[in-house]
Specification:
Shape: globular
Strand order of the largest sheet: 1-2-3-4-5-7-6
Radius of gyration: 15 Å
Number of strands: 7
Order of helices and strands: EHHEEEHEHEE
Largest sheet: 7 strands, mixed
Structural class: alpha+beta
Helix content: 25-40%
Length: 155
């Protein structure tokens, strides 16, 4: 199961279902609600043309994905999702290795992502993969931090 970049024609609906299904556990846990709720097929298709969308498939169906967006001095990783039926097989690590390779190929020294403050299990999982907390952000209208920024040097 090798990650592949998808562009142009793809089953954006299947990818949207993968993301929404695997982000659903956040409902009622995070405030404000996840931006995954605002995703559409058109938004994903736009991401594929202005940034990158990577998938791992099983029998032609997406079971894991990530978005990559180029930012000054870093490569931003978003919407990392692995189907519950395929967890524990190293798919997230495989996608992260792909992200590191892409960053290295572009001469970008850092991978960056954000995760919500409430999702402590995500903090631990990303820490185990070499990410460290490097900042925090607040959504508009919130006095307290709502997200943590995590970064990993690319070697």
């Amino acid at each position: 199961m090798t990650p592949r970049r998808v562009q142009d024609r793809y089953d954006w609906g299947a990818l949207l279902r993968l993301i929404r299904t695997n982000f659903a556990f956040m409902e009622g846990r995070i405030d404000p609600p996840s931006s995954a709720n605002r995703l559409t097929e058109a938004v994903i298709e736009q991401q594929a043309s202005t940034g990158e969308v990577w998938v791992i498939e099983d029998e032609g169906y997406p079971i894991a994905c990530m978005f990559l967006t180029f930012k000054p001095g870093r490569l931003y990783l978003g919407k990392l999702a692995v189907a519950a039926s395929h967890r524990g097989r190293g798919l997230a690590r495989r996608l992260l290795q792909t992200a590191e390779t892409r960053a290295r190929d572009m001469g970008l020294p850092v991978l960056e992502l954000e995760t919500r403050v409430e999702l402590t299990e995500n903090h631990a999982a990303f820490a185990a993969m070499g990410f460290r907390i490097t900042g925090e952000t607040r959504h508009p209208g919130y006095a307290q931090p709502t997200s943590l920024t995590l970064s990993k040097p690319v070697r």
